[in-house]
Sequence to fold (162 residues):
Amino acid sequence: MRLRRRQGGHAHPIGTLVLGLWLIAAVLAGCAPWGATASPSGASAAAQTASSPVASPTPDPTGPSVDPLSGLPIVAAADLPREARTILGKIAAGGPYAYSQDGVVFQNREGVLPRRASGYYHEYTVPTPGSADRGTRRIVTGGAGEQYYTDDHYASFRRIWP
Fold:
C-alpha cells in the first residue's frame, strides 16, 4: 500500500498517529526520548530534580554525584580524611580551633562556590600531616549550613554531605 501526501502538503494522519503512539510507549516504558536521561524509576532527571529539594542532594552509591545547588561533586563526610572529619566536629561544637584564621570570612575570590554576599562563607583549616604550615586543605561553610571541602587551596571544591 502506498501512502500519498495529503493535499496541502500536510503529513498523513497515520504517520502522526504512529509517531504519537511511539512517544506514549517510550514514556510508559521509562525511555527518555531526545537524549534526556531516565532513572530506574522511569522519571527523567529533570523531573527528579524538580521534585527533590535543591539543598538536599544525596550521594549516589553507584558513582559520583553532583550537588544541584552548586554543580559541584558531592563527597560523603565519612569519605573525607580523618583530619577533615575532626574539623567538622569542631565546627559543629563551635571550636576550639588550632589556627587564628579559622572561622574568618572566606571571600570566594576564585568564584568556584555559588556567588553569595560577602560574609556568607567562612573557612576552617584541615591540618595536613607533615606540612610545616596550614597546608592546602580547608572546609568552607555557608550561611545556610552547607559545607564544602577543598584539598587544593580553593582550586576545586566538593560539597560535603553527611
User: Anything to note?
Assistant: Confidence is low (pLDDT under 50) at residues 15-23, 25-54.
